[in-house]
Amino acid sequence: METKLTGKVIVVGDNVDTDQIYPGAYLALTDPEEIGRHCLEGVSPQIAPDFPQGGIVVAGRNFGCGSSREHAPIALLAMGAKAVLADSFARIFYRNAVNLGLLPIVCPGICKKVHDGEAVTLDLDAGHVTVCATGETLPCDQLGEQQRMILEAGGIKPLMRARFGKQ
Amino acid sequence: MHAIEKILAKNSGRAEVKTGEIVTAKVDFAEINDLYLQTVYSFYEMGGEKVWDRERCAFVFDHYAPCPDVKSASNHKAMREFAQKNGLRFHFDTNCGVCHQVMPEAGVVYPGMILVATDSHTTTHGAFGAMGTGCGATDMATILMTGEMWFRVPEIIEVRLEGEAPKGVYPKDVILAVLGKLRADGAVYKGIDFTGSYVENLNVAGRMVICNMAVEMGAKTAYMQPNRDVIDYVTARAVRPFEIQYTDPGYRYAESHVFDVSALEPELACPHSVENVHTLQSVIAQGDVKLDQGYIGSCTGGRTEDIAAAAQILKGRHIAPYTRLIVVPASNAVMQECIRLGHIQALMDAGATINAPGCAACLGVHAGILAPGEVCITSTNRNFPGRMGSKEASLYLASPATVAASILNGKITDPRAYL
Predict the structure, then answer these.
(1) I need a labelling partner for A124 at 20 to 30 A (CA). Which of A5, B185, B198, B227 fits?
(2) A138: domain range?
């Protein structure tokens, strides 16, 4: 797991639900690459085509609320996102993200400090996020032990493969 | 301990659990819906061979019932093959209905159990004194392999609902009022225990409506202490013996919110958020809200009681010209009961389109999709942008009675005038 990463951001608002992250019309799709093309289409269809590789999604409160669809973190990862920084996350989205190796990091107030296209640095060990342009630093929550263990293994799949002797 | 904590303790082999602890608990029943072929993929990617217990997991084909296109049909085919290969005792194909209705009907939901499903509305089963919670595809695949899942023991908040509902106020209005106050993230990662005299006297269907929408406040799970109606319901159906859990006297909730149900009015969640709740009268006072479609259905608002409430208003009348009303019974059993009771006839005479049981347009996949600029009033659970089709469409969430009275007039209308 990368504990320090820098990336350009796109900023979305409060209560961005999983229908906005991944509209219901595409739920039958199963190929990650195809899924990634529709990421955040409910916010703007322009986000996915323009998304910078290794970028970071910044959101307000309750990111990922609504449906339990795992297509949401699959789409974010396939679009090229490494992490989501938000005031808060909805529970099922949070679990799904951890399971798939997408970093969901609680960083209160971050969405008010950056704009689309600006870069931030997430330093998990130090427990803060730095806005590159201004140098301003905001504290972020540490991951729980369970979440860290899953993310360090690269997601739940490698952990399960090891447990079932299928390395 | 709270009853939810006792369920988690029992299933994780502990004498007690504490808020915030991570426990690994046995799952009593696991359900996979038809949006989740990824579960099968993840199962094999992680080295799965056979499911842990063929009696304790099932697929429900409800979101694409019946299939609207080749892609969803192919997904069904792959999932059906997986179910057959594993010899799953229960299988709910496209002829059954919405998972949260068909599972209780089949007796796989009962008090004191842990139910996990690949669907956020699994909080519904708190209505039966069960701990129900939703998960994603890969979490579900780990359950299919191990029969377990890790849980953080949640804070429990109390939502106390006291008094009798006035005429025209339905369980849907009650939960919308709660949601308006607690907001869309008011219970993130928490359990909500619905208590009070209103809950004690509420029937099974009404309890399911309220617990169903607990997730719209972010809740991990919901709970209601089983009453006589619940015990009768599960006793007639449960596929195995069950033990009701009780919260210890003096248990201290993380928060308590008290609502006087007798003072409530019909409510609406206005576009485009479930927390944008206003009384119906205050919305009407701002001017007419013209409608293109009414929708009655889903795991929230498609039960016999919901369809009966609509039929009561629409019987002998006809929906407004140039509007449509889509009715989707929550299950095959609900549809048959509504046929027997004459509700389907009454609604068809009133101009309704009846669709096959399932999730249908609730999540915007088929059977009642909206065009840009259209306005729909619906008994479902979410009014997010694009939820029922175009993101330029507008959705109002309401009780089935409000949906019926409104589509009758082609504009949002107070149902109390017809009761």
Answers:
(1) B185
(2) 4-142
pLDDT, one tens digit per residue, over A5-21 is 999 999 999 999 999 99
Residue B311 in tokens: 């039929």
Residues 6+ apart with CB under 8 A from B77: none
| Residue B123 to residue B189: CA distance in whole angstroms | 12
* SS3 assignment, position A46: coil
Residue B372: CB atoms within 10 A of its CB come to 9
Taking the CA of residue A65 and the nearest CA in chain B, the distance in Å comes to 7
- Candidates B188, B274, B384, partner chain A, best to mutate (most A CBs within 10 A): B384
* Domain-located, residue A159: no
Q: Where are the beta strands (DSSP E) in B267-404?
A: 267-269, 277-279, 293-297, 324-328, 352-354, 375-378, 394-397
CA distance B391 to chain A (A): 7
Interface confidence (ipTM) of the complex:
0.94
pLDDT digits (tens, 9 = 90+) for B153-172: 999 999 999 999 999 999 99
Integer angstrom CA distances of residue B117 from B136, B167, B285: 8, 35, 41
Whether residue A155 is contained in a domain is answered as no
Quote the number of domains for chain A: 1
Domains of chain B, earliest start first = 3-259 (3.30.499.10), 268-413 (3.30.499.10)
d(CA A114, CA A135): 11
Q: What is the CATH number of the domain that holds A37?
A: 3.20.19.10
Judged by CB atoms closer than 8 Å, whether chains meet at B218 and A65 is answered as yes
- List Cβ neighbours of B265 (8 Å cut-off, separation of 6 or more): B166, B168, B169, B173, B279, B280, B281
Distance CA B89, CA B86 (A): 9
Query: Could you give the CA distance from residue B158 to residue B166 in angstroms, rounded to a whole number?
Result: 23
Q: Half-sphere exposure of residue B397, counting CA atoms within 13 Å on the CB side? A: 34
User: Which amino acid makes up residue A33?
Assistant: E
CA nearest to B91, candidates B34, B27, B148, B22: B34
Q: Is A11 within a domain?
A: yes
The maximal CA–CA distance of chain B, rounded, in angstroms, is 62
Q: Which residues of A touch B (CB under 8 A)?
A: 15, 17, 19-20, 23-25, 27-30, 42, 61-62, 65-71, 73-74, 88-92, 95-96, 99-100, 144-146, 155-157, 160-161, 164-166
Residue A71 lies in a domain: yes
B363, A24 contact by CB (below 8 A): yes
| Cβ pair B118, B32 in contact under 8 A | yes
Sign of dihedral through CA atoms B280, B172, A24, A90? positive
Q: Which amino acid is residue B147, in one-letter code? A: G
Nearest CA in chain B to A16: B384
Report d(CA B124, CA B214) in Å as an integer: 8
Q: Tell me what the mean pLDDT of segment B27-42 comes to.
A: 97
Q: In 3D, which of B320, B269, B326 has the Cα closest to residue B291?
A: B320
